[in-house]
């Protein structure tokens, strides 16, 4: 163990640790969940620290040797060399100060080593140097926005693109398959199987538009606000230059938020994005539920779709196979809706000048993006692309559907057509059989008017 100090006194820290006194206090204070802040967020925060160090160096607010050591330490964090040095629990101080000081201390101790010193000697100071021009109140929300935007670019949007492509492929494959439509879970008029898959595809396209729009608000960063939005202790030009460098690192056009007071007091932009994820989750529930419903069987259900067999489905019923991927999609989607509600409630906690629920927001939005992206990839490759249409089953439903009477209403009227449908139902005959028996249509007329292909 080694002795480290902060403004409250001395703290014993493990020798191998790169964090210092404030992090150790947080470890001891917050023994809550055993879950530390997501590494996606740590890397985003390291990106902010790197940009700030470069800005301070260029503007000569930090001496060059110190700045270079800080820059190297930040790069090493981004190279995953210190992943085990960020142990602070998610459920900590609501500003995320403990995590901000965690990374400040890791950077300071590593920079001190780079300059020839030992951990704890503070040749580079976590507050005076690493945190220069910054506050937890602006760096944490800045890193939160960056994490969401970059994770969405790298995982969520590519996953949605893959699902859109998979649905479009099946839409084309199923273009010539006529099936019975269903409303209220009852037989309706015919549609193409491709119409259903085309509708799913359009849902995904629309979700992409909503998510992309929501991401624009997250490209506004709070950096430069410092403690309450006034920018106190931030050197002139520092934040603008740092944000410019963040944009270069990420190839994303970030800018400083137009109102820094709003940027730290409110989490509306994150809440709006979380709502778009919730909408996506609702869409995924609809699509996965439809596919599970249409594939139910294999012999005693609807069975219009045949899913790929992935694993045995029962520990007691031999040969049973379940729709495991749609079920996984449903569980993830319900979870994402729950996370979105948590974020909504946390966003309401922007009391006066600062939102103090940021670590919980960060954890849940990170989890939501990751699990949704992963399950969408699974859904595309393991469920949608291998789906087959059970043409024999589909044709049998079409032939026996009472909804085929619908175009007959234009010829004999709604009431008479309804009577024919009722008679077909109670006698267990097809619409065509009843019409021909009653002499309402000739065989040639019946073939033409009651042809399902003419109804789509």
Automatic annotation (TrEMBL):
InterPro entries membership: Aspartate_Ammonia-Lyase, Fum_hydII, Fumarase/histidase_N, Fumarase_C_C, Fumarate_lyase_CS, Fumarate_lyase_fam, Fumarate_lyase_N, L-Aspartase-like
Chemical reaction(s) catalysed: (S)-malate = fumarate + H2O
Localisation per UniProt entry: Cytoplasm
Keyword field contains Cell membrane: no
GO molecular function, one term: aspartate ammonia-lyase activity
Cellular compartments per GO CC: cytosol
GO annotation, biological process: aspartate metabolic process; fumarate metabolic process; tricarboxylic acid cycle
Location (main, coarse): cytoplasm
Domain of life, per lineage: Bacteria
Pathway(s) of this molecule: Carbohydrate metabolism; tricarboxylic acid cycle; (S)-malate from fumarate: step 1/1
Residue numbers marked as site, Important for catalytic activity: 327
EC number(s) stated in the UniProt entry for this protein: 4.2.1.2
Alphabetized UniProt keyword annotations: Cytoplasm, Lyase, Tricarboxylic acid cycle
Domain Fumarase C C-terminal: 404-456
Protein family membership: Belongs to the class-II fumarase/aspartase family. Fumarase subfamily.
Assembly and binders: Homotetramer.
NCBIfam families on file: PRK12273.1 (NF008909)
Function noted in UniProt: Involved in the TCA cycle. Catalyzes the stereospecific interconversion of fumarate to L-malate. Catalyzes the reversible conversion of L-aspartate to fumarate and ammonia.
UniProt name for this protein: Fumarate hydratase class II
Organism: Desulfurella multipotens
